[in-house]
Amino acid sequence: MEIIELKTSGKCEMVDITKRIKEAVYKNRWNDGILVVFSMHTTGGITINESYDPDVQHDLIRALDKMVPDLNFRHMEGNSDAHLKTSLIGAESTLIVEKGELLLGTWQGVYFCEFDGGRERRVLLKFIGK
Fold this sequence. Notes:
Layout: E1 2-7, E2 13-16, H1 18-27, E3 33-39, E4 44-50, H2 55-67, H3 80-89, E5 92-98, E6 101-103, E7 108-114, E8 120-129
Antiparallel strand pairs: 1-8, 2-7, 3-5, 3-8, 4-7, 5-6
């Protein structure tokens, strides 16, 4: 098991954590199996999406803002929209590791999605396999 710690700066942003995940796979000599990438927060999710064009991340956040506007929610902390966005994106992704390599498509990256930042965040990596 490995924990990635990161600090976000914006209220909503997508942080590319692909490189840090690949470093953990190499460092721990994780070989063949699956890797669960899990956000340890109720207002931050994990997604796999395009890593080539940063406009994709911008567009995703903009679309989520339109789908889940900041309404007059009953939750008193004022971040109910962040909880809903996290539920839509999800708290985890499962990745395949083969021969010590993270298997991703050419343009894919793994992102921590911040919806209530800036904050200090933790992402858990749990490897199951050899």
